[in-house]
Design brief:
Layout lengths: L5 E6 L5 E7 L4 E6 L6 E6 L3 E6 L4 E7 L6 E7 L5 E7 L18 E7 L4 E6 L8 E6 L5 E6 L3 E6 L4 E7 L5 E6 L5 E6 L4 E5 L6 E5 L9 E4 L5 E4 L6 E3 L5 E6 L2 E8 L3 E8 L6 E7 L6 E6 L4 E5 L4
Antiparallel strand pairs: 1-2, 3-4, 4-5, 5-6, 7-8, 8-9, 9-10, 11-12, 12-13, 13-14, 15-16, 16-17, 17-18, 19-20, 21-22, 22-23, 23-24, 25-26, 26-27
Length: about 325
Amino acid sequence: MDVDGVVKVWRFSPNPATISTIMFKAPLMSLEWASKSDRMMLLGSSSGSIKMYDVEAKKPLCEVDIVSTHPRVLSLSCSPSSTSFVSSSATNARSRHRSSDSEPSSSSSKLLVWDMKVMKIQRELQLKPGVGCVNCTNYNHNGNLLVTGGMDGMIRIFDMHRYESLLSWQAHTGETYATQFSPDETSIYSMGSDGKFIQWSINRIGEKVCDLPIHEGATGPFVMSGFGGYHRQHVPRGKLFAFDSAGKHLLTCAPYGGIIYQRQREQGLMRTLTILGHKTPVVNVDWCASFNTGMCLTGSMDGRVQVTTLLSQ
């Protein structure tokens, strides 16, 4: 997926090959595979539309417009237990430099719950005024809970049966870029613009379990520079960290690759491996849970995607 509105779907086994190319008229900002399907994909644009695409048939199934006042689809998350999905869409205005935390943001978001079968809005999850953009959304394993991270630095947990906010707390000074439930779902991990990677307790509201030692640059901003004064900065968005299937290792973004940490009780994280191969900063990572060998994916600012197989020892 790139800012030119092009999505390429690859098959990496037995040999890497493009199986589908999707063209969008506007820059794409979010992507999500439909739950329980490896052929349906949701795509969110910067122009106020969400498209469902059939990868095998190589054709769009439908395209819907969201609220015109909030055209930027920052995040899409599919429920693992139903045909529902959540979209976070934001206004075009985005003030990243407020003079104080109490000053309201000029941006705002809408959290909408959709029915994928008919591609219609079911509910709107209510947000208080001044929240700003909701940068990220993630369901837990059964779809009962939704965790979000916002421009206001807050983490919010929603009850997806009652469609209401259950818990919220200040997680970061600045923005919360990425949030995710721990593999055992007893805590939540978050990364923010303050450069911190934090583990939070779910059972004790807003209680910090620990500040996890993370390398510089893991939370962005990501910068690419070149000859002739070329300079480009990428605002962190998407998956900034990923756990393996056992929840024992963590893959993170780094300037020229990915860095893997091992989770430990006393030290929190221990750096174990660096995955090289990129010439520009890695801005998104993922860990394929369906392979025992450990299939790591790293994507960098220059459009390069690298698949690395880790052999168990």
